[in-house]
Prior knowledge:
The protein has helices at about 40-50, 80-100, 105-130, 135-150, 155-165, 170-190, 195-205, 235-255, 255-265, 285-290, 345-360, 365-375, 395-400, 435-465, and strands at about 70-75, 80, 220-225, 280, 300-305, 310-320, 325-335, 385-390, 415, 420-430, 465-470. By secondary structure, it is α+β, with helices and mostly antiparallel strands.
Amino acid sequence: MRFFSKTSNACAVAVALAVMAAGVQAQGLKSPGKAKAGNDSSVSRALEATAQPTGRQTPVAAQGIRSADYIVAVVNSEPITNNEVRARMARVAQNVTEQGGQLPPQGELARQVLERLIVERVQLQEAKDTGINVDNLSVDQAVANVARQNNTDKAGLLSRLKAEGISEAQFRSEIRNQMLMQRVRERDVDGRIKVTEADIDRYLKEQKRPGDAVGGGAANLGHILITVPENASPAVVAEREAKARQAAEAARRNPDFIAAVREFSDVPNGQGGGAMGMRAMSDYPELFVQQVGNAAVGAIVGPFRSGAGFHVLKVLEKSQSGAPVYITQNHARHILLTVGDGMSEAQAAKRLEDYKRRVEAGQATFQQLAQEFSKDGSARDGGDLGWSSPGQFVPEFERVLDNLQPGQISNPVVSRFGVHLIQLIERRQEKLTEREQREMVRNVVRERKAEQDYETWLKELRGKAFVEYREPPQ
């Protein structure tokens, strides 16, 4: 079994306090069912964004929600209440306002939000009915990741949430629900996607058609967003533009783009530090494509303005027929412990923490422990995974690997396959062969298929559910 063949660019849940849909969703932070942002409405993008716990919800008491709650719909015997709809509406309204969009009439917004909640509910029911669960360790790691993205620790994060009327239990519950929905998708949709050589040839042919977006091919763009509030004064716009220029200059000075994202971006993205993932240029907003043009790998573009604010882009990777492609490759090894048969994620993580301690104390080598304990096929090679290109591993694994320094060992990492201990051996810049470029295109095509199949799967799942509408939400 190949534990690391990437089946989708969909992320494990690593949500940020400042999530908003700024024209594009970043690579790892793509919400299930993401539509192409360039063609999507601000309300639709806000609905996607608020499906994730953002840490910016308006407290129920502050929304003026009436105390006499009532049921607005029943989904397979589970109720959805008016208060749930109103709370989500408040979050959508906040996101749309920040994006500079326009809200539909109250009744239409309530209808859209209710449908979103119904779709989420049937996915959670599917997870429960088929035995999918999320261990507390996975939630702990997600919470820690949110805190890290926001330059704070867990205590600081919880303090900020409490100030906004969000309890730790509520925040953890929302993260758990997102992870449950993601795992259902990985099992029922992403894991079944097949990409043939004919699919790749067809995609490459489409990219060469007249009228394609500037540049064609595919690219992985790093993204920093400096938001501009709706109806901002000229002074505020000038201040935000100045900050964006500082971000661009920092990105040009420091090859570590992640550092600039963490320092400046209003939408910190835990999936690769602002990287949006290798995707077709036609899948980016037209504004991004126009700005990037024929920029070389490593180039910093911007700042430039959109309805959401000021953007700074970095061309991290690029793939285009006939042009050489240089990418960052990692050489790593790992130890994998699988979960089940009496071993929980927490128990596996405790064992891996002990392995890490033994390696760092010089009591054993990483290779020896991998050969003895790892449940992956790489165990016979001391856990050696060879050289890997972006998109080869599942997002939760790759995100941690990308942030390691040569020789460094990670903390235990939970993925759909179990719990890993990862060591980065070395890193390099490498020109891809034509065959390797086709494999990167394969990831782009796989992502497209996954999005299409996911929408179909959602409709089928929704169609099988018994939904009874009661009194309309108010």
